[in-house]
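Reopening closed ticket. The problem is back. First fold of the pair:
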Amino acid sequence: MKRELKISAIKNGTVIDHITPGKAFEVARILGLEDFSAPVSIAVNVSSGKSGTKDIIKIENRELSKNEVDRISLVAPNATVNIVKNYEVIDKKKVEIPSEIVGILPCSNANCVTHFEPVKTKFLLESITPLRIRCFYCERVLTEDDIKREIARED
């Protein structure tokens, strides 16, 4: 007898699918879901025909901002964001790491001008695999681990 755990469909909201296995809790932290009052479902290591396994997050009654989607792209670059209305997916987009990452995370260089002047941080994408971004102002390079630390520090 085959048993499966099913996550119920949501009427309205957002489904973040194809999250890199093990990254769902980082995505949830980025979105501040621990303080969100509507139902949230998180599934980790779910079978996937494309990639073997994946994580999924379903958030009822919430659509993500562009800034939130850009932040997700830095930790789960293969994710898709699906907007659901009346139980139907009305929009589906693959996240993309923007070529310019503005105001999303701080520069890890304590001497960077962004810590002393009222300017938004700005990073330029150098490489997707491995993920590397460069500060526009001080030229500090951040790797995926650096980005993960800075995003966690911001939350």
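Second fold of the pair, where the issue appears:
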Amino acid sequence: MKQFIFIILICYLNLYSWGDEVKKLVIDGVYQQKNLYVQNYYSGSVGFCAIEVKVNGNITTDEINSSAFEIDLSSLNLNYGDKILVEIYHKKDCTPKILNIEDVRPMPTFVILSAKGSSDGLITWITEDENGALPYIIEQFKWNKWLPVGEIIGKGTPERHTYTFKAFLTSGENKFRIKQVGFNNTVRYSNDILIQSTKIKPTFTISRDKKEVQFSNETMFEIYDIYGNIIKRGFGINVDINNVEKGTYYLCYDRDVAEFKK
């Protein structure tokens, strides 16, 4: 015990003596039952680059005075999926390198056991084998593209989990999918989820004074100019276009794309 306290004291004295010459490398992630491996360069002054390592605010007892060392996360009583914050204090003239940082970064590994949607827009899916608390992004295919319409944070653990999301439906057939994006933009998608809606398809007209787009019933909409710049976006039954310049525009509404002139 005395020896351990002595080691900690020496570490603090070392940090104090380096003063402004000390920098900090920070890695946050989740514990996935794997340790971290660090390439530890030589300092331009003396000795190795790393001075001290902390995990979740606690100094580790890992041997860091070598050209490579291991941060033993397995010895820290962590549970799978626990959040971790690793801090490596190092000399200013060099920076250690984490060789396997992906092993503490969440990856989209979910398996969907079932997914379905109801006629009122309620989407329900059951998953297992999640690897870190990544958001589930719900996308809807309309206007010839996939659009994000909602987001739910995943539980991030391998057990079975059930999620629900209430989507706004267009008329006719609606197509949804669920995705997660992980480290290095790794993406995983569900299969398409189809929902048949009984909603009446809206129509639109331009008011006589050219100041409004008027829908027959409420709908989501987007208006683009001929260069692809978005002019208006929203939800409603009327769209104010009084301040829109004269020209040709594209109106996305319900699940259709139409052209109109101002």
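Update: turned out to be a display glitch only; the data is intact. The longest strand covers residues 212-225. Residues 1-18 have pLDDT under 50 and may be disordered. Please close again.
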